[in-house]
Design a protein that fits this description.
The chain is 20% helix and 29% strand. The protein is α+β, with helices and mostly antiparallel strands and 323 residues long. The radius of gyration is 20 Å and the shape is globular. A hairpin with a 2-residue loop joins strand 7 and strand 8.
């Protein structure tokens, strides 16, 4: 079992567009690496006036930015370097020494939050029990199912537990057009010990269980053609969906995601459309909760050899719903 040990940044920053005086909310969305001093340049989604109590899709657009425009985000001065193919998505530069930027994030930032939760979240609310390096922009929320009793029980049953660090990105931008581009590029780090544990499990005929879609994305991006996983740092690009042939992960433990979301599309790599539709119907009829503090699904892929002219293919996967 492999889980994401990333702690969640206070990645929502309110402030002012100095060229117009307009209020803005900046939601940091990505950076090129996980290096502690690489905190100057981010991709970011920028929204107009309002806060998390307003549905993201109902938030007004930000002012019309031009390269070089200045922002004041609490104690953090920032500038717009350019757009990334959409008015809400920009490259943002935070000014100052890395230590000052970290301090400014800690003092002024808040967790990215959506309107389905009415009470403001504290930073520790979005940290999973195994949270470590503060690099995620939204919580790797599948990890909320873990606790130390569960880890001890897995160890007692001979299940190897390992971690990687993946900078989980935003799950919604408020723009349908932009949401179709999610997930954006996300940095990750796979320890050598985790890569070795995966090799060992494969050699014993074991299965690889990913706790969360971010783990799937990191492992599949780092996989060689033969399924071996490279340790080290990388930048996960592209999307995983039903067209992707999994090379590493056999089972995913994930939140209960809404059809159409990028997380739901990733589950298509494990199960066919009919299976996922049945699971979604069961989730809805059973009153299961979606979003980051909701219920979970366990999806197991089942590769089989079909005899005859049909050749090889994939049988329907198993999907278990858990509260």
């Amino acid at each position: 079992m492999v889980a994401n040990d990333a702690a969640t940044l206070p990645a929502s920053l309110t402030g002012t567009h100095l060229d117009t005086g307009a209020p803005v909310e900046v939601r940091l969305a990505g950076r090129r690496s996980l290096a502690e001093d690489d905190v100057h340049e981010f991709s970011a989604v920028v929204l107009g006036e309002g806060d998390f109590r307003v549905r993201t899709e109902d938030r007004p657009p930000p002012p019309e930015f031009a390269p070089g425009d200045r922002l004041r985000l609490g104690p953090l001065p920032a500038s717009i370097l350019g757009h990334l193919g959409h008015p809400r998505l920009v490259t943002l530069r935070l000014d100052g020494a890395p230590a000052a930027i970290w301090a400014g994030l800690a003092r002024h930032g808040r967790p990215v939050q959506y309107s389905h939760l009415r009470a403001p979240l504290a930073l520790w609310d979005v940290w999973t029990p195994i949270a470590g390096p503060p690099v995620a922009f939204e919580s790797p929320s599948a990890g909320f199912v873990l606790d130390w009793a569960a880890l001890r029980a897995m160890r007692d049953r001979g299940i190897t537990f390992a971690t990687l660090t993946h900078a989980a990105g935003l799950s919604s931008t408020g723009s349908l057009e932009l949401d179709l581009r999610l997930p954006l590029d996300e940095a990750y780090r796979i320890p050598a010990a985790t890569a070795a544990a995966i090799r060992g499990a494969r050699a014993r005929g074991g299965r690889i269980v990913a706790v969360g879609t971010t783990v799937v994305r990191a492992l599949e991006h780092a996989a060689l053609a033969d399924g071996r996983v490279r340790g080290g740092e990388g930048l996960a690009t592209g999307r995983i969906d039903g067209s992707h042939r999994l090379r590493v992960v056999d089972v995913v433990l994930s939140g209960a995601h809404e059809p159409g979301s990028s997380h739901y599309r990733l589950l298509g790599a494990f199960a066919d459309d009919a299976t996922l539709r049945r699971a979604s119907a069961d989730l809805e009829s059973g009153g299961y909760r979606t979003h980051e503090f909701g219920d979970s699904v366990l999806v197991e892929r089942r590769e089989v050899l079909r005899r005859g002219a049909a050749g090889s293919g994939r049988a329907p996967a198993k999907v278990a719903l858990t509260r």
